[in-house]
Amino acid sequence: MPYCSNCGSPLDDNAHFCPQCGKPTDSQALPYSVVSPSSPKPAPYVDNHIAKAILVTIFACLPIGLVSLVYASQVDRFLMSREYKRASDASQQADKWANYAIYAGVVSTVLSLIFFFILMHELSGSWATLRSLFIPPRIDSW
User: Fold this and answer.
1) Fewest CB within a 10 Å sphere: which of 4, 35, 47, 81?
2) Cβ neighbours, 10 Å, residue 31
3) Do 130 and 104 belong together in one domain?
4) Residues 27, 6: one domain?
5) Measured between alpha carbons, how far is 104 from 99 in angstroms, rounded to an integer?
6) Backbone phi, then psi, for 78, in 5-degree steps?
7) Statement to judge: residues 26 and 54 lie in one domain
8) Domain containing residue 8
């Protein structure tokens, strides 16, 4: 019995078109099936963003980074159970929360620096004294 060269379904001996895919049969129909119905499809690649999640958890914002880590750890589990849509959603959530952690880390750093300089100004009494804390005075004795 010949098989369709496009989809691998069995053909009648006198068929001119494949009953499954509709492709015209040629005179060189294969005597065996090209596509096995049990052949697994390769899993699509879904990035889990685990490295980004770990780095932002350590360096930027711990609470929001932990949310990103939870989503990033779910991606591989969903891929192993062949839930590709849920794996893609978890990947997008991990990336989104990692970006939120980066933004929170930048904002908190800027606010901390502003608070630090205002506090140093209030404690020192003037900006000149504050400047002397960080820049040593010039020595012109030579």
Assistant:
1) 81
2) 7
3) yes
4) yes
5) 9
6) -70, -35
7) no
8) 1-37
Contact 8, 36 (CB under 8 A): yes
Is there a contact between 34 and 3 (Cβ–Cβ < 8 Å)?
yes
Same domain membership, residue 59 and residue 10 = no
- As a residue count, the chain comes to 142
Q: In 3-state terms, what secondary structure has residue 10?
A: strand
pTM: 0.57
Q: How far is CA 112 from CA 66, 104, 106, 107, 117, in A?
A: 22, 12, 10, 9, 9
Shared-domain flag, residues 56 and 110: yes
Instruction: Compare 122 and 75 and report the one with higher pLDDT.
Output: 75
- Are 67 and 108 found together in one domain? yes
Round to whole Å and give the CA distance between 5 and 25: 8
> For the segment 70-91, what is each residue's pLDDT rounded down to a tens digit?
999 999 899 888 888 999 999 9
Token representation of residue 129? 């004294």
- Is the domain of 15 the same as that of 72? no
Is 44 within the bounds of a domain? Answer: no
Distances (CA, A) of 38 to 83, 85, 109: 18, 22, 55
Look at residue 17 and tell me if it is in a domain.
yes
Give the number of other Cβ atoms within 10 Å of residue 138's Cβ.
6
